[in-house]
Hints:
Layout: E1 6-11, H1 18-29, E2 33-38, H2 42-45, H3 48-55, H4 73-80, E3 83-89, H5 91-99, H6 105-112, E4 116-121, H7 125-129, H8 131-142, E5 146-147, E6 151-154, E7 160-164, H9 168-179, E8 189-194, E9 199-200, E10 206-207, H10 214-225, E11 229-234, E12 246-249, H11 253-264, E13 269-272, E14 279-281, E15 300-302, H12 306-312, E16 319-326, H13 330-340, E17 345-350, E18 362-363, E19 366-369, E20 372-375, E21 379-380, H14 381-396
Parallel strand pairs: 1-2, 1-3, 3-4, 4-5, 8-11, 8-13, 11-12, 13-16, 16-17
Antiparallel strand pairs: 6-7, 9-10, 14-15, 17-19, 18-21, 19-20
Amino acid sequence: MLNGKHILLGVSSSIACYKSAELVRQYVKAGAEVQVVMTENAARLISPLLFEQLSKHHCITDTFERPAEVKVAHISLADWADVFVIAPADANVIAKFAHGIADDMLSTTMLACDCEKIIAPAMNTKMYDNPATQDNLALLARRGFHIMDTAYGELACGVTGAGRMAEPAQIAEYTELLIGYEKDLAGKKILITSGPTREAMDPVRFITNHSTGKMGTAIARAAAARGAETVIVHGVMEAKVPAGVKAVPVTSAQDMYDAVMAEADSTDIFIMAAAVADYRPKTTADQKMKKKDGELTLELARTKDILGTLGADKKEKWFLCGFSMETEHVLENSRKKLEKKNLDLIVANSIKQAGAGFGTDTNIVTMISKDAEDELPIMSKDDVAHKILDRILEMSGPH
């Protein structure tokens, strides 16, 4: 979704600037046009020629350069950009941006720029934790800058702590989140459940299922990219929580029930994609259950029905979307679930279809409402996610 977008990349003098080359490569691979502005000190750490080769544009380091294609470089670049990404952003440029100092090409361009702005800090832990740096970052955030979290780990100076620049893939994903999609869900809060739950038998063993959380995280990624306030309540899953999404990790079905209900009053749209256990062990042993001769009988009790509870006390503003994973009579069983739980929409699929179900990057679904069915061909889970959101918007109308 970055195809044709104009990305201005600012590179300051952190040792993490070597990662910026990979970021340019990812942007270009996604179809974006990239121009790079470097501080003079950054050019001592990594050659501007590398960025020129990757971006196919002249890399600017000097305020008084006058490349042939622009008349007033910092103004032209600012007008050209859809987003200005500073990666890495060292303590010095962060301070300049916060206080309106414009004494080089990077800071001058920033002052003239009114597009979306992403800051990816990178510096020594003590510099990052310094109250001056934290105050500057907080000030920029209040002004609408998007501040990415730093990673915790070993730094170039040998210290282990906060201050590592976010990985290029994370920055590219966040850039897509900001400028890749129309914000047609702005003003809506969407809650998605994702992944499996684990129901403990004892401190060692639990009952679970094969869900990886890929479908739920794809929906969360799509919702955030389209401007929604997005919350994902997730079990222990393989898929990573997307950028820009509030994560609420849980373990059991009861945990997920409690977390969903805690968010329910402020939520507009519920999309229940988690594979929640229908049953749990009636009792959980305090100690590991020792193996004995003969068979073991495990008594199970029903878990609370999250969607059923929401549907039974449905508020006027709520839109309820469920998922139905079936092995037989897929459409028939899904329609029954739609009616029984008072849902607006249910997304049905069969675990027996190749390319659908747990652990795949694709899915084959049928979206069922009270008066319509829409069977989709096999497509990526990201594309399925957008189709689901399109249908929800179509059914719920403008907000």
